[in-house]
Amino acid sequence: MIKKQTMALLTVIAVCTAASGCSTGTAPAEGTTSPAGSTGANSNKPGEKIVLTMWGGVPAESGPQAVVDAWNAKNPDIQVKYERFVNDDAGNMKLDTALATDQGVDLFVNYSQTQLQRRIDAGFTLDLGTFTDYNIDEKINGAGEWKINSKYYAMPTSKSQFFVWFNKEMLDQAGLKIPESWTWQEMKTYAEKLKSDKRYGLVQHLEPFPDPLDSISVKYGYTKPDGSSNMDHALYGQWLETLKSMMQDGRTTVPYAEQVTSKMPVDTVFLKGEAAMLNAGTWIFRSSNNMKDNPRSFKIAFAPVPRLAEKAEDFVTRGGTGDAISINAKSKNREAAWKFLKWYADGGMLPMVPGGRFPASKAVNADETIKLLLGDNAATYDQESLKKVLFQNIPTYTRSLPKQVLDLRQEEYESFFTGKKDLKATLDAIAKRHNDYLKQNKK
For the chain, does the N or the C end have fewer beta carbons within 10 angstroms? Predict the structure, then answer.
């Protein structure tokens, strides 16, 4: 998929280069004179109103328009327009084409490091190190994962979180405390005590479903020192066995095949009181705050996702920074774009919070973020436990496995959960197929 996207982007650039007056998007070196037809940092005349265009993947009504409106009200000399693209293959190609054909894009959001690297290679991104009045490393924890060749070509502005949601009423009835650090075995015990004939102990979204495996692989390596696959690690087996036993134990958790076949809306199941625990992320707030469509009488509490590693200090959880915003290297208004980007990162993006996007900058007040997130529904959440998971001090990772490896691993654990293979055969198959992939893609 990545190769196909890269080839398609190169084709766009080649066509543009051949066409009269079309830019490749490659900026001139600092200190050099811009060639005919290119643009400098600020080409507007003194006193002339600047209009910036920002491209992002979030629907305008879900926060971006409120951000832009707030900025525009206070900055009549620099106005911003928001252009939405869908964050899928077609949408990202639309953005890349707009960049390649010089359609006036000033700022744009990268949602993966793969996308950012492709745009750097194409010359679409400005090195933000050319600005010296904002230290990204000091302002944004975890920003370093977006550095490429020791440079920032995009500023990460949000941080993602994954955690376990609890029906606190059910937790209290079972006499169970809100965990602050726990293991998968402990979560299994909680789920067994919380289940009933009418509810599941635990339900999970399928997207973060394999996160425990990546947590192990990030800590201990996807490959062994000899270069062979380490995806048959013993803790992989522990996760498989633990979860399968939960699937087979009444309503401790949902059998895998049943969840996939029924396309179970697990967030709705949880909010209706048909499950005591939900393993998901911040995006669920869009549903949990929607009392009209998801009315509930119970309070929600939170815990960090459980670990497979025995020691807490060996645990790495999924999360990190995202929504990395670049300035187009060919923008006519780099200084104005930079001014807006700093403002956005340091609090301007707060209208994005109700949709589950949390500011990553240390300049943003945590209490204000929580207040915006919960809105009028603050009393329906255990805020103490929420603050602990949102601002927990646990090392994080961003999933970066190639899609081919994600797919082969999923195919094999599906075979295990549906009874087609035993544990040893499953682990052997994952390692073998991973080794085959590594050999085929060895440089």
Answer: C
Q: How far apart are CA 289 and CA 421, in angstroms?
A: 41
Residue 51 neighbours by CB under 8 Å, 6+ apart: 79, 80, 81
Check pLDDT > 90 for residue 215.
yes
Q: For 75-101, what is each residue's pLDDT tens digit?
A: 999 999 999 999 888 999 999 999 999
* Tokens coding 110: 């990268």
| Residue 317 φ then ψ, to 5° | -110, 155
CB 93 within 8 A of CB 4: no
Nearest to 279 by CA among 366, 186, 202: 202
Q: How far is the C-alpha of 351 from the C-alpha of 343, rounded, in Å?
A: 13
Q: What is the pLDDT of residues 114-131, one digit of tens each?
A: 789 999 999 999 999 999
pLDDT of residue 112: 83
pTM comes to: 0.74
Q: Report d(CA 21, CA 41) in Å as an integer.
A: 19
Q: What's the rounded Cα separation, in Å, for the pair 208 and 160?
A: 12
Least confident of 26-30, 123-127, 147-151, 157-161: 26-30
Alpha helices in 19-88 (DSSP H): 64-74
For tokens 């095949």, the residue is 257
* DSSP at 156: E
C-alpha to C-alpha distance for 55 and 95, rounded to whole angstroms: 8
Tell me phi and psi for residue 316, to 5 degrees.
Answer: -125, 125
d(CA 22, CA 102): 7
Q: How far apart are the first and last CA of the chain?
A: 18
Nearest to 281 by CA among 116, 147, 158, 155: 158
Kindly state the tokens that stand for 336.
């104005």
